[in-house]
Design brief:
Blueprint lengths: L2 E8 L2 E11 L7 E11 L1 H8 L1 H4 L11 E2 L2 E11 L9 E7 L3 E10 L2 E4 L13 E4 L5 H5 L1 H6 L1 H16 L7 E4 L5 H12 L6 E5 L4 H7 L4 E4 L11 E5 L4 H11 L3 E6 L20 E2 L2 H12 L3 H16 L5 E6 L1 H12 L7 E6 L5
Parallel strand pairs: 10-11, 10-13, 11-12, 13-14, 14-15, 16-17
Antiparallel strand pairs: 1-2, 1-4, 3-5, 3-7, 3-17, 5-6, 6-9, 7-8, 8-9
Helix pairs in contact: 5-6, 5-10
Amino acid sequence: MTVISEFQVNRDNFRETHLAQYESPALTNDQLLVRIDQFALTSNNVSYAASGDMIGYWQYYPAPAPWGNVPAWGSGTVLESAHPDIPVGERIWGFFPMASHTLLTAGRIRHDQLTDVAAHRQALPGLYNNFRRMTAEADFLQAMENQRSLLFPLFSTAFVLCDYLQDNAWFQSRQIIIGSASSKTAYGLAWLLHQRDDAPPVVGLTSSGNSEFVRTLGCYDQVLNYGAEADIEKQASVYVDMSGDAGVISAVHRGLGSQLRASVSVGLTHWDAPANKETLPGPKPEFFFAPAQIAKREQEWGHGVIMARATRASAEIANATAQYTVIEHQHGTSALHTAWLELLDNRAPAQRGLLLSLAERA
């Protein structure tokens, strides 16, 4: 019998964690027992926890209250299968819990994909229910397994966000300001904007400790430190916020006022910052939900087209920025707990890319 270990977070206090362990039940029709070989830990995971109730991230892998399983992107191996079309040993990539193993209910099987069709997932955003069958995919994807878990979800979000901004004619702006400019999603977006002749110039906002790193990326036209928001040129602008820091959001809104054409919230890494209850000048900040833009393009471009483009773009960004990411592999509950607290406190180095495993080493 396989023991499943889950690294669970208190949904009311993200700094409190514990390891839940239980024996894997006997599989029923179409279920799979998957060993999670590795998963990435990035600022995305903090945003998943912070917006877990609003979007439903806690519900993908339910846990008894007050605990929750924070999802993470990673790869795994099928150890047991009750589905006739999914063999033991198959490797898959997708949205897993931070755990040693998990159970999936396989359905809608294609040569390169399966979907978890468990009943509790039916009302949740479908994007996160799909798992890629890795051996059926292009060689370049198989060769980039580490980057795929660590970087592709962030860069794919950047691609969809860039498409959203372009789809709205850049909101008639003359500059795009990106907060938390050292984050991977932020500089992925900046890199994409930098490739486009029709995109406005890009301003990066960052901490003083990360400003040199952000400048070396070469994809921002201007880099400003937090506290210097008043130095942003007063012209038609879009603000893309990656952290949810109410103080920075307020400073940008107050500095630009009616010149701010759109305020787009993407991440919530400053999850414990006091909520901004004041009425801000300019447009109301709107949360960017990537699956909504993906669904729009699915209707317009055809099934799977936008994600195929996002995947190719992610590979390009990962290769172009490889020198700025140091990939580390860590193992065990203690390492995960330490790394999780570093992310919560915004102490994780911008250059680090962390891949973890709770599965027992072979």
